[in-house]
Amino acid sequence: MYRRFLKRPMDFILALIAIIVLSPVLLIVTILVRIKLGSPIIFKQKRPGLNEKIFTMYKFRTMTDERDENGELLPDSVRLTKFGSFLRSTSLDELPELFNILKGDMSVVGPRPLLVQYLPLYNDYQKRRHEVRPGLSGLAQVNGRNAISWEDKFNLDVEYVDNVGFIGDWKIIFLTIKKVFVREGISSNTSATMEPFRGSPSGSVKL
């Protein structure tokens, strides 16, 4: 009942309230991104959503466009400025995704939408993460975020898919708020963000 009829209306209402309440914050961040990082202010990227349908996800820009002598983008660790790191550590860069929730591309809670190029790398178990709308936060985000392995993330994503519920969603929402304040799991142990997913070794994923 909740998954089929109540989750989407709740998402819409929560996103709308959040946009109204946080509108001053959205305005301030917009101005600061324009001053410190330039245009475009909003970073747009194609991501797979429900049933692997591709949508455009919105985030505040956190990196520069610095390139090497060959025109290739420099590593994330170089292009990620102190201001960009602040936006990520506070999750302020994620606020434009509230508009994705209004549009129906995303949910407040669900597996995080990953890169389109990862789609061919998923096994059948991992693909189950697309049986629900992707979320602004999810079970993996409140259990380690970028500090846990890809396999652990996918296991938590599928665990969420199998147990979608009202109480569970609100527990994740409250845990997300807590994680934002303590700024846990922003980076992996070896990367400024998260290492690219290159597929899972055979037998490494829980079935």
UniProtKB/TrEMBL annotation:
Positions of the Bacterial sugar transferase domain: 7-181
Listed InterPro entries: Bact_transf
Pfam families: Bac_transf (PF02397)
Entry GO MF terms: phosphotransferase activity, for other substituted phosphate groups
Keywords from the named record: Membrane, Transferase, Transmembrane, Transmembrane helix
Listed transmembrane segments: 12-33
UniProt entry tagged with the keyword Transmembrane helix: yes
Keyword Transmembrane helix in annotation: yes
Family: Belongs to the bacterial sugar transferase family.
Protein name, entry field: Sugar transferase
Organism listed in the record: Crassaminicella thermophila
